[in-house]
Predict the structure.
Amino acid sequence: MNTLTISEEQIILRQPDDWHLHLRDGSILDSVIIPTAKVFNRAVVMPNLSPPIVSIQSALEYKRRILKAVPKGLSFMPLMTTYLTDTTSPELLAKGFAEEIFFAAKLYPQNATTNSSLGVSDLASINSVFETMEKIGMPLLIHGEVTDSEVDIFDREAVFIERHLEPLLNRFPSLKVVLEHITTTDAVQFVEANQSKLAATITPHHLHINRNEMFIGGLRSDFYCLPIVKRERHRVALRRAATSGSPCFFLGTDSAPHLRASKETSCGCAGIFNAPNALESYAQVFEEEGALDRLEGFSSEFGAVFYGLSLNTKKITLIKSPHKIPSKFKLQSKDLDSEYIVPFHSGEILNWKISE
Ligand code: DOR
Ligand code: ZN
C-alpha cells in the first residue's frame, strides 16, 4: 500500500485528503478553497454556515458553489455533511445518504463553537437519528466538548467522552464515529481503546502549540480555537498518536478561516486558518518526530480506509526548502479588498514546501 519515497531533499507521497475542513461561503469561499484544492483531492466540508446546512437542497447548492469556486484545471471533491439539530429527521438523513449527497452528519453540542446555536441540546433526544445512522452505516462526526459552563474549558473534551461518547458507543455499538480534532491524552487513549468503529482527526495546530502559546507576549487570538489547545503533555500525546502509524488517527486540518477583524475584537472568533500550509505543517511534525515514513498513512490512507473510499492515485511532492510563511492571506474579492486572514505559522519558517 505504501507508495512513499523519501530522501534528504524530497518526499513523494500519495495525494492527501482533508477529513475536516471549513470553507465558509461567498467571497471568502472563493479565496480559501484555493490552497486546499491545490493539495488535497477530497475534503469533508463542515456544515456550520449561517444558516447551517440542514437539508438536501442546501447541501447540493453549497456543493455547487464550492465546485464553482475551484480554480480551473484542479480536481477537488467536496464531501458534504449535514448539521444535526434537535429536530433532524432520520428519514432526511437516510434519503440524503442514499442519494450520496450527505457523506456524513456533524454533531455540534448546542453552543459548543462557531455557529452551533442550532446544534443538539440533548443527545438522548435524537436516539432515533443515531439508530438510523447505525443501520445505514452513515458516519457521525462529533465536536466532542460539553457545553456545561461549570466544566472548566480545558476539561470539556475529557468530560464529553465520559458523559456522552462512551454511553453513545455503548448504546450504538455499530455506529461509525469520528471524534474530530482531538486535543487530549484522554481522547487518544479512548480512541485507541475503541478503534473498531471509532477514529479521530488531528489538526496541525494541536500538534504544534500548547496553551502557553496563546499568552506569549500578550493575548494571541490567532491561537484561539475550539477545542482550545491544552497543556504540553497533551500535545506530546497527540504527536505520538499522529505519528504512531495507528490507522485510527488521520489528517483533518479543521482549517477555520476568520477575517482579521473578527479575530481581533473583544469577543474574537475561535478558529485557526491553516489551509495554506497544512501539509507542510504536518510534515514538519513528522520530521521532528523522526516519523516521515508514517506521514503518508496519516495524510493519505487511513482516512480513506476508515470511510471505505478508494485511495488517491496521484502523487504529490514535498521539497526540503525552508521558507517563511507570509504574515497575511489576502482575499481575492474586491469587496474584501482591505480584509485578510492570518494563516497558521504566519512569519515562521517551515522546512518542507509543496512542489507546484
Ligand atoms: O476553532 C474552531 N473553529 N472550532 C470549531 O469547532 C469551529 C471552527 C469554526 O467554524 O470557526
Ligand atoms: Zn471544525
Observations:
- Residues 146 and 163 are 8 Å apart (CA to CA).
- Residues 20, 22, 46, 254, 256 surround zinc ion (ligand 2) (CB under 6 Å).
- The mean pLDDT is 96.
- The radius of gyration is 19 Å.
